[in-house]
Amino acid sequence: MEKVPMTVRGEQLLREELERLMKRRPLISKAIAEARELGDLKENAEYHAAREEQGLVEAMIRDIEYKLSVAQVIDVTKLPNSGKIIFGATVSLIDVDTDAEVSYRIVGDDEADIKQNLISVNSPIARGLIGKEEGEEVRIETPGGLKTFEVDAVEYV
Fold it and tell me: Considering the entire predicted model, what is its pTM?
């Protein structure tokens, strides 16, 4: 089974979600029991809704448990900062053409959220950045075309 990289924060969020879902289990079971008491199950909307929710919650629990079982949690703060871009690093870039600055943190697939500048390690930008160092120029094919960035800073935070 191949391990999937995940940040410490990513693991923490998954564990919190798993805990929340586990607390829903008894509430759903209680709702199913109460709906059963209402009689005929064929036309019992409450029963069917509770059973559907139970199926969704169980599927989500299995999904999270699987993700945690294959996770390789990488705590970048415990690694010596060599100035190289690695999984978990926060990278400040300068667009060579526009001088615009942007910062990204390279995270696992499930943690990626471009609105928070969290990019997947498997994204084209992250793949182009991994292994590069502060001061290096990097050419990356983006959806908007070929861009050239200068690596301004690499932080292991």
Answer: 0.82
